Amino acid sequence: MASIKKEQYAIAPRSRVLVTGANGFIGSHVVQQLLSLGYVVRGTVRSQKPWLDELFRSKYGPNSFESVVIPDLSDYDTLRKAMRDVSGVIHVLDADGMTVDTWNEATVKAAFDEGTPADAKPFTVYVASKTEGERAAWKWVKDNKPPFVFNAILPYYTVSERMGQALMSSYNSSRAYQWSLNKI
What is the CB neighbour count within 10 angstroms for residue 92? Predict the structure, then answer.
């Protein structure tokens, strides 16, 4: 794999980057990668997570990471404050969340298919939420023509170590999928 020289990065190292959902599985890995490349990171969390600041500051220094509590990303005043002095935003948080009432047509079909195992339905809902979230993002870009580059990264499945012990208690689709494989 070809590597990019730091001088060619769109955002220079030592710049501040905002990462939404910094305490999540993907978000915590994004934060770690940014910090390892020399960026300063501000991470959003829905509620106070003191262990998160300690985790990253102990490894990358006292001024490397700060968390900011934003319970609701539709609170634009709080979000605007969090975005002050940042050079980039990496949005990995599922802002709307998902429930069993969050469907797309394929998910509805799978949910009502008698062959779909009950423990697979949460994963199906997760996939539907990601599909609809991306559709909404591309529509917004098309309608608003923002002055930045929008990218959608679509990992099918992620497996890695957890960043901190507190993350072990979170139940997500990757963990559910691993659990279901262990049952086979």
Answer: 18
pTM of the shown model = 0.64
- Neighbouring CB atoms inside 10 A of 26's CB total 19
pLDDT of the residue at 101:
46
Residues 143, 54, single domain; the answer is no
Q: How far apart are CA 168 and CA 44, in angstroms?
A: 19
Same domain, 135 and 74: no
Q: Answer yes or no: is 9 within a domain.
A: no
Other Cβ atoms closer than 10 A to 118: 7
Quick one: 65 and 129 in the same domain?
Answer: no
- Please count the other Cβ atoms lying within 10 Å of the Cβ belonging to residue 22: 28
> Does residue 136 fall inside a structural domain?
yes
Q: Determine the Cα–Cα distance for residues 136 and 22; give it in Å rounded to an integer.
A: 22
* Mean pLDDT of successive 10-residue stretches along the chain, which has 184 residues: 75 95 90 96 94 95 97 87 94 62 54 65 68 82 90 69 56 54 54
